[in-house]
Amino acid sequence: MSALRKGIATVSLSGLLPEKLATIAAAGFDGVEIFDNDLIASPLHPSEVAARCADLGLTVDLFQPVRDVEGVPPEGFRRVLHRLERKFEIAQQLGAPVVLACSNVSPDAVDGPALRAAQLHRIGELAQEHGLVVAYEALAWGRHVNRVWQSWTAVQDADHLAVTLAVDTFHLLARGDDAAALDGIPGDRIGFLQVADAPMLDMNVLEWSRHFRCFPGQGTLDVAGVVAATLAAGYAGPVSLEVFSDVVRQAPPTVTARDAMRSLLFLEDQLTGALPAVAAQEAAFVELAAPPDDPQVKGTLEALGFRLAGVHRTKPVTWWRNGGASLVLNGQETGHGRPQALGLVAPSVAAVQTRAAALDWPQLQRTRGADESALPGITAPSGVHVFVSAPAGAPDDWRSDFRADTSLGDSGWLGLDHVGITVPPDRLDEETAFYRILLGLRPGSLQEFIQPHGRLQSRTLRPASGGLRIVLNVSQGDGASAGARGITQLAFGCADAAREVGRLRAAGVALMPVPDNYYDDLDAAFDLDPQFLGLLRDHRLLYDADARGGELLHAYTMPCEDGFFVEILERRGGYDGYGARNTHVRLAAQAAA
Amino acid sequence: MSALRKGIATVSLSGLLPEKLATIAAAGFDGVEIFDNDLIASPLHPSEVAARCADLGLTVDLFQPVRDVEGVPPEGFRRVLHRLERKFEIAQQLGAPVVLACSNVSPDAVDGPALRAAQLHRIGELAQEHGLVVAYEALAWGRHVNRVWQSWTAVQDADHLAVTLAVDTFHLLARGDDAAALDGIPGDRIGFLQVADAPMLDMNVLEWSRHFRCFPGQGTLDVAGVVAATLAAGYAGPVSLEVFSDVVRQAPPTVTARDAMRSLLFLEDQLTGALPAVAAQEAAFVELAAPPDDPQVKGTLEALGFRLAGVHRTKPVTWWRNGGASLVLNGQETGHGRPQALGLVAPSVAAVQTRAAALDWPQLQRTRGADESALPGITAPSGVHVFVSAPAGAPDDWRSDFRADTSLGDSGWLGLDHVGITVPPDRLDEETAFYRILLGLRPGSLQEFIQPHGRLQSRTLRPASGGLRIVLNVSQGDGASAGARGITQLAFGCADAAREVGRLRAAGVALMPVPDNYYDDLDAAFDLDPQFLGLLRDHRLLYDADARGGELLHAYTMPCEDGFFVEILERRGGYDGYGARNTHVRLAAQAAA
């Protein structure tokens, strides 16, 4: 397969038309769809827009949309032709070879195949006179034509070469169809292909489309399947993004354009496997920005049970370990002991670098000494640096850069269970795409929690295999840690939560208080053995159980001023969640802190 | 009818439990529903909560909710009884006489009337042992019980005095039922009444409930009808607000509590007509904060065609008039010539004062000279002051405070067509309630527009009769006028828009540019007479037409730095809209300014 011709509709970006075109070109797109309202509101004449695009190296692939053009009561069709003639002239001036026509949404639309065919045929004649092709699209909320098979039937009935089918992944998939709906449609009858993804939401499809579309890889629709089917049919035109959402409308166009280009590169990779596959598997370490000899940070780490495990061979960097959990103190960074980077095991390291370069994710420039492991660093949209290590023992294992203290035993915590990263509401899609597209993690659905002063949304990301768990959090409202950003939570797994919280308390670590009422609720909800309930109550442990007998025991430290906190958790019997039933208790305690 | 017993659920407010209780008491509520999660997360023992409420003068009306208690597979019912016994003990400690039980939402719920009846009967026995009553509620998304007739059938079948019906206006109305669904249900079998309103939205009812509930008077559900039917049946318990939404979760609890209390006073007034009716009819004037002799402001007014029409008898206030449009310059206020107050004709003035006092809308304290008209001023949530005048010629007509220049003719503009007021997203419900509850205006549905850097939502408010039009705007995103607040638009009606924009240009008023492309689109869309299109193009007028032949011709001034602008419009043939098709052109021009 040759490289996709990559396009995007101007409606997908915020801003004014000249800025949009420049931003689209700078992001590396081949072509553009001109959205009529962008043109109407612009002082640029269509021929000036055409010249501007040519200067920028962009083809004008489509002019869109014309609406309510077929199924029109016959007495009104002359007005439609007048309207189309004017718009076709503008398409000519723009140099757009294709005009998108949406299926009629008017309550007055007439549902007659013969009338529709005759009107589309006449429209085809008019388009042909202007040297144009019309691509007819079944809007998911069209009055009579809202499924792709209906629009394809209409195109066949129209029986005119200038009337072609428009395929839009959102409209097709939103109505529950899939790639099979395109079976038997010849590619040369498909006039245009628009792509958009979306999260699964049970709501009016028009509102869903207006507010929640996103770029391929950010949602859950099988965009790649529909695109693959369209290409397999022989369609050779551009693959063009048409995405609008509450997020995109407010995001800077440069951010959106980069995000959009990455999504098409991801789509291309899904279709061709051109990029090397990556599957992040495990958390390796968390890096804190602190001088290795900072007494306060050292004191905190020691209280948590971490011990100095190694010293970097060439840099002012130390490695601290509590059993299987590793922290790294980096004295080259400033950040008051806050976590700022995450080390992951993700074979292969070279593949991650190749993907990051191809997908335009910025790589950190760091000096690398002779014999040091590669450990490339890539910055996520949240600002968190992600370092990629080979597995233990392999070349490029991050540990090989340290002179390890071999006397340190392996007892202690099991490892880093999950990492909580907080992002602003309008960056969640982009952060999700980072872990999904670059590192091969799979996003879960969005969970929502009430906070005392707002709401919290969470989405987990996990690999197909491996223990890595990343939790993305969005906090809305003006709560205590409303401004928290980046890594805000480190959750460590242990084999005996009661023993660990006892040890932490003895070491002077301030743990989050849990109200007595909580234990009365546990008693009500789970009918626990009184002795076990007493253990939980005595240790102020939170508890959850799943339907299969799995159990979670966990506790939190009090948050720092900037909202950062540590969790200790014990999973029993295959418990696979995060204690969602207890989140409101944590949020209330944090708000009270 | 005696006064309603007014209650509210703690889940309706943001914050932590002690703060919620204090805020609820301060707003004047009689009682409170304790939401279980608020209690679980609180260090206060239930008996301490009871004492706190007693100290605050609040009755604890309800403890809520217990979930998934009926239709439970028999082998699991023992666990349910254990859970209920614990929760009933807590209700006793709280002093709550009623516990709310929601219909089962579990996919495993069993759909058998006999099992449901037997389990509810057993629950009734347990409740009675604790001196409690259970109120059983049909959640709109219950697995088998989701309509009020189903829950009433279950209550009858349970055949136990301690099992009663819970009526929730949201759940009842959201499923398309209305007050008639309560026909024949005796009031003494209704154990609790919860009230919430909502805007009409076509979406999953659970998401609708979670994110978009609002207080009565802020939405479009017939809350008053259901409450009236419940009271008519003989229900004598509290009327209790249970409202959660994305707005309420983030709003300060004091704001929410005041809003909530106003909504119950409004509801009470709808039921009893206890407060005097008010119907604002016309715009009287707009007040600008500026010294009467400010040369810049005077220059602008003169360029717009306003002339000095009168001088206040006692204050440094002048009246400027352009035909039927009046502006007032108030030198006692500071605000750089910005509009800050709106005068309305709303009979009777005394009635508005009575309503404002009863509904806790703050009245401005202003000195009133002997023989001056009453002209009470009330501050809307947006900060806009609304002054209320009697009609022309009546006592308390605002004009009677001025020594008028009787030589000034009546030619000029027709009047103030509409006023645009911009509010933050989280204050739209409250601002809507101000005009609806206090002044009797009727809200329209929410319209949405794309802005170059975000989105704009608009809602109109109009009286049942009279020409007053208020447009509330919410701007999201960081566009040019993102921080604009208060009165941001004054739209004046005229008889000949082309003549007026010609006159304004000649007077040096900077009007908003309209691109040539816009006129090509007008030609395409409306197939206008070429001469008329030429007139529109020459005068750079915007245009719209409705299906009945009504037409709008309009133009805008360039916005000030803070986003304020003036519109001149000509309505022809009964055109009743606001030119929504042109809003994107205005927003683009304003973004480019």
From TrEMBL, chains A, B:
Q: In which pathway does it act?
A: Aromatic compound metabolism; 3,4-dihydroxybenzoate biosynthesis
Q: Which residues form the VOC domain?
A: 415-540
GO MF annotation: an example = 3-dehydroshikimate dehydratase activity
Which Gene3D superfamilies did the record assign? 2,3-Dihydroxybiphenyl 1,2-Dioxygenase, domain 1, Divalent-metal-dependent TIM barrel enzymes
Please give the biological process terms from Gene Ontology that the record holds.
3,4-dihydroxybenzoate biosynthetic process
Q: Which InterPro entries match?
A: DSD (IPR043700), Glyas_Bleomycin-R_OHBP_Dase (IPR029068), Glyas_Fos-R_dOase_dom (IPR004360), IolE/XylAMocC-like (IPR050312), VOC_core (IPR037523), Xyl_isomerase-like_sf (IPR036237), Xyl_isomerase-like_TIM-brl (IPR013022)
Q: Locate the residues binding a divalent metal cation.
A: E137, D168, Q194, E242
Cofactor or coenzyme needed: a divalent metal cation
Could you tell me which Pfam families the record lists for this protein? AP_endonuc_2 (PF01261), Glyoxalase (PF00903), Glyoxalase_5 (PF14696)
Q: What is its EC number?
A: 4.2.1.118
| Keywords for this protein | Carbohydrate metabolism, Dioxygenase, Lyase, Metal-binding, Oxidoreductase, Pyruvate
According to its UniProt record, which reaction does this protein catalyse? 3-dehydroshikimate = 3,4-dihydroxybenzoate + H2O
What does the function comment of this entry state? Catalyzes the conversion of 3-dehydroshikimate to protocatechuate (3,4-dihydroxybenzoate), a common intermediate of quinate and shikimate degradation pathways.
Q: Which family does the record claim for this protein?
A: Belongs to the bacterial two-domain DSD family.
Task: Please report the name of this protein according to its UniProt entry.
Answer: 3-dehydroshikimate dehydratase
